[in-house]
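hi!! sorry for the late reply, been swamped w classes. u asked for the two structures so here they r. pasted raw, havent cleaned anything up. first the sequence of the first protein and right below it the tokens
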Amino acid sequence: MDFELSEEQKLLRRNVREFAEAEIKPVARELDETGRYPRDILKKGAALGLTGITVPDRYGGAGMDHISYAIAIEEIARACASTAVILSVHNSLYCGAIEHFGTEEQKQRLLTPFARGEKIGAYALTEPQAGSNAAALTTRAARRDDRYVVNGTKSWVTSGGAAEAAVVFVSTQPEKGQKGITALVIEKGAPGFSVGREEKKLGVQATACCELVFTDCEVPVANRLGEEGQGYKIALETLDGGRIGIAAQAVGIAQGALDAALVYARERRAFGRPIAELQAIQFMLADMATEIEAARLLAWRAAWKHDSGARASMEAAMAKLFASEMATRVAHHAIQIHGANGYSREYPVERAYRDARVTEIYEGTSEIQRLVIASWALKG
């Protein structure tokens, strides 16, 4: 097993890190405080291929592998968790779903401009009363000739208030439960489609996370992904790639917090010397660095498995579970190292602590990840 990155992956890491340092880090605090959606940054990132990382070049993408995807999301998250999750959802949950389950016509129409960064995509599965139990969704779609009429509300949709289209999961045959779920791509401007309230959140403030409301919304049958009843399968398989992205995001948040803690520990003096020389601080830094590296390797392993063409559900769940809980621990230690200053919004570790917490919740809670891991482990 080769743990060394390829020259292309090393170049990508360097380029994305430089981009994040120059374009994102200087405005990360402002994005957090104002909630401004970073459309300008996304357009600049498109020039680096960040809006279509794994999409083949014939559909406007960069044609890279999922390890490259994890590397890019991590580097963005070191500077800004909001920008990172926008790109993660756009790449894996929107572009990934259409790339793997869309027709050639759908790829040309609903994937290519998104991979190029001309448009941004979203993913709408969660509902006010259907989160972890996604099969209990109540958004309905009834077919009428060459269109579906959709009614219902989706919640917690990253980029919901800014995206030009969303992959939306609806029930076309409610009596069949999860086997009656269908995936539709619903475009901005569709009759009966509106954006609801924006969520007021603890962290990741700049994601335009909103409700999507469908009132007799008309969607062409040509916008259906796969066949009727395949939606639940599409949702779960797409989430494998999404969880790799969230694992990478968590690693990036944690790495950014460790970077800040290292700088602070070298500069802050107590008892006549830098606190970096105190064993209590060194032990925290050692634990932080070790856990980050373990999470990074789990994310890369899941990405490698995904690229092999094999199902990576267990590996993606392991990576997401460990990385997300690790990020919260690392951010906690980073604040502790900063002392009272860590509790101030003047220092980035306070934002890292708030941003890290949601990685244990979205795209499947830690409890759901444990269920996924156990189910695969029990299959033997």
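now the second protein. again sequence first, tokens right under
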Amino acid sequence: MASPFDLTGNTTIVTGASSGIGQAIAVALAAAGARVAGVARSSMNETARQVDEAGGSFLQVRADLSTIEPVERILEQTIAWAGRADILVNNAGIIRRGDPLEFSEKDWDDVANVDLKSVFFLSQAFAKRALARGGGAKIVNVASVLAFTGGIRVPSYTAAKHGVAGLTKLLANEWAAKGINVNAIAPGYVRTDATQALQDDHVRSERLLSRIPAGRWGEPADIGGAVVFLSSPASDYCHGTILVVDGGWLAG
């Protein structure tokens, strides 16, 4: 009997795959048997190396998701490479920190474009192709614990991640009966470039750690298994789920 977590034969698109959480997701999916098309603005050579070590195959698609211009090309390149696209992981994201009284329109738009707008339009393009072949596809969005709380000094990021949570539920309502599962994960405080400023602020870092029941920052590898689950047959009856992976932060 095949494992319900086996992704052999599936092709996954992972955005933001050059480092951090996206890189860890790509490696975890490859280890589960999937082919992985990574999408990022910068080189993904290190991700490709790790995927190869995990026994998988990897396609680099260089694209900047600050606009929706590359959306169709991402799907076309992936399908030309693998013949189909079965799973989409919308992980790409940026963050801008600042006092809400001084926050600029550019910092608002830059974050909203990558973290929310691209999620919708890439999901739309992916779903059109999936529905044309009869469904049987999975979308996993990367939200955040800030989809449930407010945080501080990250107004556009908090708004975008609330938007990702809402969009996940909306698309699940729309597509569940058509054979597309749409779910999300909500990582907590994970050691990545995006959280480096918090890691370097010893006062904030200690306050955060004091609120995390697990007693440590998350590592990118902690996120991979949750994405494998939501990408696999094991989650076939999950629709609109937001799976929190935060060391207990929201329970604290």
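hope this helps!! also noticed smth abt the second:
The two ends are 39 Å apart (CA to CA).
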